[in-house]
Write a structure and sequence with these properties.
Layout (H helix, E strand, L loop, with lengths): L1 H6 L10 H6 L1 E7 L6 E3 L5 E7 L9 E7 L2 H5 L6 E2 L9 E3 L10 E9 L5 E3 L3 E5 L11 E2 L10 E9 L3 E11 L1 E6 L2 E2 L16 E7 L7 E10 L23 E10 L4 E5 L5 E4 L2 E5 L3 E5 L18 E2 L1 E2 L7 E3 L5 E7 L3 E6 L2 E18 L6 E7 L1 E2 L5 E2 L18 E5 L6 E4 L5 E10 L10 E8 L2 E2 L1 E5 L2 H16 L17 H6 L1 H7 E2 L1 H14 L23 H4 L1 H13 L3 H20 L21 H22 L3 H22 E2 L4 E2 L4 H9 L8 H14 L8 H13 L3 H8 L7 H6 L26 H8 L4 E3 L8 E4 L9 E8 L2 E10 L2 E8 L4 E4 L11 E3 L2 E8 L2
Parallel strand pairs: 2-9, 15-24, 21-31, 41-45
Antiparallel strand pairs: 1-3, 3-6, 4-5, 4-7, 7-8, 7-9, 10-23, 11-16, 11-19, 12-15, 12-17, 13-14, 13-16, 17-18, 19-22, 20-21, 25-34, 26-27, 27-32, 27-33, 27-34, 28-31, 28-33, 29-30, 35-37, 36-42, 38-39, 40-41, 42-43, 43-44, 44-47, 45-46
Amino acid sequence: MRKTLLMIMLSMGTLLHAQQQKECVPIALRCEHLENPLGVDKLNPRLSWQLDDKRQGAKQSAYQILVDRDSTALVKNKSRIWNSGKQSNSDILVQYDGSTLEPQTKYFWRVLVWDKNGRPSTSSIASFETGMMGMQWKGKWISDKQDIHEQAAPYFRKAFKAAKAIKSARAYIAAAGLYELSINGKRIGDHRLDPMYTRFDKRTLYLVEDVTGQLQQGDNVLAIVLGNGWYNHQALAVWNFDKAPWRDRPTFCLDLRIVYEDGTEETVSSDQTWKTAAGPIRYNNIYTGEHYDARLEMPGWDTAAFDDSEWHAVQYRKPPSANIVSQQMVPIRLVRSYKPKLIKKIDDRTYVFDMGQNMAGVTKIKIAGKAGTVVKIKHGERVQANGRLDQSNIDVYYRGSKDLEPFQTDILTLSGRKMDEFMAKFGYKGFRYVELSSSEPIAVDESAVTAYFMHSDVRPIGQLKTSSSLINGLWEATNNAYLSNLMGYPTDCPQREKNGWTGDGHLAIETAYYNFDGITVYEKWMADHRDEQQENGVLPDIIPTGGWGYGTANGLDWTSTIAIIPWQTYLFYGDAKLLAECYDNIKRYVDYVDGISPNGLTTFGRGDWVPVKSQSNLELTSSVYFYVDATILAAAAKMFGKTGDQQKYERLSQKIKDAINTKFLDTTTGIYSTGTQTELSVPLYWGLVPEAMKAKVAANLNKRVEETNFHLDVGVLGAKALLNALKDNGYGETAYKVAVQDTYPSWGWWIVNGATTLLENWDLQATRDISDNHMMFGEIGGWFFKSIGGILPDPTQAGFKHVLLKPIFPKELKESSISYQSPYGKIVSSWRVNGNKIEYTVEIPANATATFYPPANIRSSGAVQLEAGKYQMDLELK
């Protein structure tokens, strides 16, 4: 190690000393926001890092990026592909700008940084590997010869010989539907539900797998089983999944590129030499369940010893789209496992398992019995009074046959030969309870069922712990609901719909970004938006969609995702790429609404969905979101130097603002419309209230909340705005009382009644809109970061380059510790009450700064400027 360190020459001609390396080290190197990714298709991928430097005032004064195909060249400070040269700035997100990247090539990179004193240090070596980059695939699209109505999943295999010693191997797999790949009897990777759901006729995703360790010199077998996924939706639902224009039998294309030790290459591809057969998966539907007949298992089907003489020929297919794109995002995985908390025996054929946690995922079943015994594995969120599973809150939109294809139910037919083990490959459920019902008596115990919480495996970056068990429980429940609804795109619920409802997505975006590193998921989802947008600018309110959702109510309060999510991504990551990619789409959308709303007001929207009681004015809330979109568009135009657009949309946003205030604001009373909590909080939160009227409108909002004894009277739009509008306008104490209320109607009411996720309805006795795992009221989880943590991005120095610290210290809360891993590193805002003082601890990461704004109940002389570092403050309460 010492010898290696001494070999590292910096461009300044100085040696790196171990002491300097400890003081300041570039860490967390990422390409396209992923660690050492495979399959990068971008010509100019984004490279980013952080600075590990604990000293007060730590910052980066310069950087230099080195890229080469040879990692040892970087150790010697040589870089033939790209040497950025010394750049005298503090940037930590830089686009590659070297020689043209070649397809299917591994590149190594490192970054040199100079600290605040001008002393250099270097990172470890990271890598990224390019994908197809528009190269022509050698493989052909193949499938079996069945049509869309065939229920049995197709299995495929290809035997081949590798004649020489293997240096490296990559499998490039594109699929319409879902796939699992195995080589020589071993499943490749730990991903689930690959590839992610897209509009298949416009964009088809491929993945790259490193399979070097699974291949061997000599005989090998490639094996794939395909699932329907969203590509061939067979069961019926009200959203017309089965009528998608792309619908077809699943198909795939594969290139296995092998590089031998002697430098030669060989590609084994999908073609007509492959063979196919049906197997034990007799039915699979991502919306309902999977049926598996263990009697039909084919032991060793994916190994060289297997006899495939009875298997059939494949057929060629057209590619589902002309746009085959690398799936560059965090994968779905089985993240947590659960054993039953309680088992209830109904009779000798029926058992109900309480897994103790509502979740999205799958169950693994281990059970033995007589051959042909049929075991139904039913999943749900509730149980009836008699202990049996109750699906009545989630099966309301299912239009399939509940006898032949029961909802959220896997069916296992036992082999009679062994202990059978089954876990669905090509679907997931939303559930807390699992009911096993058998055609023959069975004996089971807790080992029979294991539940797996499955979701896009986004990295947790937010932490919260307070002296309030209710806050802690709300935060955990919010995160459980969020993760349950993250399957390569954000969904509304993991059982009844699995739809990418746009409103739910943008209402929860701050909660998402404070708690998880999810940028790659949202970049993918915004690409789905671009695929789904019509020429006139209209978007559907579920994305992706098979065609449903372009109706009359898919308006601004929902489909403003196209503007709000790219803007929030810029604020949280300091990365304007997504905003740039969506700029023309935002413009088309705003222009469309402008065309149908010549006076600046619009009723294009759904309104304050699922309110407690009071109905709010649809024209007011829809027009506010019109203003939001126009304002974001004007800001983006300014950022990208589009002066004409900037002026145009600044005028439009002012026109909308004036129209809203002229029609809805009573300047005498300070009341918008009829003065509901939503009608007052939405204009306040989104910045439409004239400066001279803010205090009066905020006071009216506070009065409305006091009149409900600090309870909610809002739907989803008010739930997003209310707490923020109160806290940002001097009523933080009121906002806190609402946030931690534990009687109906409130978020806390769910928690004290045993909820482990967020619900869809404030009323536990409601008869519709009653999913028990929903994300549309998810603002609460992010609000704690903005309020008792007070951690906010500064739009003028996005990505938390400059941190705005605006905490509140509510009287009822004694202690709070909140941290957030920003692009620059860990931000900590932690405090506890000690007598008449607040002991406040702040950490600002290297290369960032902050401004602390003491709240109104603290004696202070004003805002405090902070450099990077750790601070202990004793704040005196008034």
